[in-house]
Amino acid sequence: MNFPLLLFSLFLRNLQQSLPKRTSTNATTIPFMDFTLLSLHLFSLFLLHQPLYAAAAAASTHKTTATTRFRSEHISHPTPSTGLSPTTYFEVTKPIKLPRTKPCSYLLLHHDFAYTYGKPPVLSNYTPPSDCPSQNFSKIVLQWRATSKGQQFDRIFGVWLGGVELLRSCTAEPGATGIVWTVEKDVTRYYSLLMTNQTLAVFLGNLVDKTYTGVYHVSLSIHFYPFAERNFNSRDPNWNNHDSSANSYRSGADLILPISRNLPLNDGLWFEIENSTDVGSKNFTIPQNAFRAVLEVYVSFHENDEFWYKNFPNEYIVANNLTGTPGNGPFREVVVSLDGIVVGAVWPFTVIYTGGLNPLLWSPITGIGSFDLPSYDIEVTQFLGTMLDGKTHEFAFSVTNALNVWYIDANLHVWLDKKSVKTEGRLLTHASFPPVVYLVSKFTGLNGSFLTSANRSISSIGWVKSSHGKVTTNSTQALTYSNLMVIGNDGNLQIVNQFIGFNDSVFATVPSSSIHSIQSFKRFPLYLYSNSVDQGNETYSLVTNLTLGFNEEKKSSGSGLLVSSLKNLQNAQGTILVKGNLVVSELGSTQQEYRYDGSNFCYFRNVSSSNYTILYNKVDNTCK
């Protein structure tokens, strides 16, 4: 039995069954008898960085095979012991604030995703609601509901309407007694798109065989909530009341353009970024009466970069002659360009999917952002002067230090001046320099520490003249990053302590006064501890401890000041006890505290679980 297979047998719960053989570049360089966490880490990197998610290459210039795009083996986790009913998985988030009206609800799609890897997305014709008593809606909610039973990987999936991505998400990992989960997303910002006939596309790449039997049974619905009669005349600020330029900062866009790949495809509509020189791009044109534009970017990372925040620096890999180990260090950024000019960057939140690190950590409470991956808005109004010429322009995406593979696409939200045929604009100033990245390395052999830090700012000012007047937009991104990685005890221990600061500000003014401002201050802390502890008597424990946070403060001013604060923190602990070739016991525990405070809505939840069982759950809607 070769080295990776033997290591894998330590993780596999049902060790009575024979295991498939596989080869690895690590097999001849690290003997099993010299087992340390380094060997475990190398194996886990080899195994866990294999594709959690399917992505066919038929529509891509990069050719890969299904074998290399899927994990060949699966780290099993125990089946829930509490009865035979399916386990309900959930991501902790605030509920959508709904009006007290009866929704008009429609089933958009029902499909069983089984042999869908390397095949086209599932398509359906979408038509806007025509039989709803009201045709004016204050809230629109997309609902994904899925069940599965058996053994299966977690899969990335996407939902697009007319090429515009509405949802990026990850499936839960099923077990023998089955699972069920529901994702509800407020898609009201896509109002104008949802009022037109479009093609709906859903891609969830899955494979089913004798071992991996889980089929994902999916129902996708949409719910339209009309305005309450008493509120309709006052016009909810969410909607398309563009009597002034200030209202555009609170209303949905008039036009949403897809910056994604075109159908037909045997894959998702996202661009695949497979290395640091790879670029995904899309040509587009916008109407010449546009007066505001925002690019909404979707990002997810997989395979060799699924855990990019714990990748080793290349100098460490070379010095220790480590083969098959993902490198390029732990810093990544998504760079967004317009006609070759960098207009924004995304330093993404570290989403951990439901099979990531230790699947027991995410049962039934899933990782922050795993069921509804965050998108990132970049204000590009200040560049409209270069886009209003009626010609074709290009948005492009790349990833600094990227390894295979990142999935990226975007939606361009455009506001139109209904009182004019043509607007005009000019870019006044623009400053964007590559990030300043510092690496301080101190290591001897397999032990050492690495401090990676980076900072970047992107700023631009431009004006647009429309029927609303001459509005000057000033947009700034300020980003900071630090990652302290410690490897100790001859590779038995890895600690990652990372922090990302992601600040955005947009100020729109006319010569005499301020019209609107939007400020967002994001903080993404991450602490990861992984260790292999010798317990004696041929027994050792594999320990994973994690702290993950998504914190954001928002300030918006115009016709009044709106302030919101989100503090979302998870702590998780996982232990696997191994004796000889047998997994003796497994334990996964997660605690999460979620607190959202808004100007007119608050939500608090404190919940904890251990091995599929909810231990504590407190919910409070009181604003402090």
Number of helices: 7
How much of the polypeptide forms β-strand, as a percent range?
Answer: over 45%
Q: Based on CA inertia axes, which overall geometry fits?
A: globular
Largest sheet: 11 strands, antiparallel
Structural class: mainly beta
Topology at a glance:
Layout (H helix, E strand, L loop, with lengths): L2 H9 L25 H12 L17 H4 L17 E3 L14 E10 L8 E5 L10 E12 L7 E6 L2 E7 L8 E8 L4 H4 L3 E7 L11 E11 L2 H4 L22 E5 L11 E3 L6 E5 L5 E12 L12 H6 L13 E6 L2 E6 L28 E5 L4 H4 L5 E8 L5 E11 L7 E9 L3 E9 L2 E20 L2 E20 L4 E18 L2 E24 L2 E20 L1 E20 L2 E16 L4 E9 L2 E8 L4
Any descriptors?
624 residues; mainly beta; eleven-stranded antiparallel β-sheet; five-stranded mixed β-sheet; 7 helices; 29 strands; disordered N terminus
Protein architecture, described:
With 624 residues, the chain is mainly beta. The radius of gyration is 25 Å and the shape is globular. It has helices spanning 3-11, 37-48, 66-69, 191-194, 229-232, 314-319, 384-387, and strands at 87-89, 104-113, 122-126, 137-148, 156-161, 164-170, 179-186, 198-204, 216-226, 255-259, 271-273, 280-284, 290-301, 333-338, 341-346, 375-379, 393-400, 406-416, 424-432, 436-444, 447-466, 469-488, 493-510, 513-536, 539-558, 560-579, 582-597, 602-610, 613-620. It starts with a helix and ends with a strand. Helices cover 7% and strands 49% of the residues. Strand 24 (513-536) and strand 25 (539-558) form a beta hairpin. The longest helix is centred in the first third of the chain and has 12 residues, at 37-48. The strands form 5 sheets. Strands 19, 20, 21, 22, 23, 24, 25, 26, 27, 28 and 29 form an 11-stranded antiparallel sheet that branches. It is built from 7 helices and 29 strands.
